[in-house]
Amino acid sequence: MSENKQARTAKGVVVSNGMDKSIVVRVDRYVKHPKYKKFVRKSTKIMAHDENNECNVGDTVTVVESRPISKHKSWKLVRIDERAAR
């Protein structure tokens, strides 16, 4: 029973890159309100490992779940999908 388990991936926008080799990524999702049935945007902030310090604030990135790297960091940068307009 060997199942191929894929690691979770997430797309989001970099909101902070002030740390060394770390970025904070905001991942947005839309959920329907249980009573009013309106779609509401909810966001989650993920701390990810950026080995080469190549991300800037505003970049759209893809991150993948990995083993824990530090207390708050358990995601790694896969690629930069879109650079922020300067």
From TrEMBL:
Signal peptide as annotated in the record: none
Gene Ontology MF terms in the entry: rRNA binding; structural constituent of ribosome
Superkingdom of the organism of origin: Bacteria
Xref: SUPFAM superfamilies: Nucleic acid-binding proteins (SSF50249)
CDD domains tied to this protein: Ribosomal_uS17 (cd00364)
Entry function: One of the primary rRNA binding proteins, it binds specifically to the 5'-end of 16S ribosomal RNA.
Subunit record text: Part of the 30S ribosomal subunit.
Entry similarity comment: Belongs to the universal ribosomal protein uS17 family.
Record's protein name: Small ribosomal subunit protein uS17
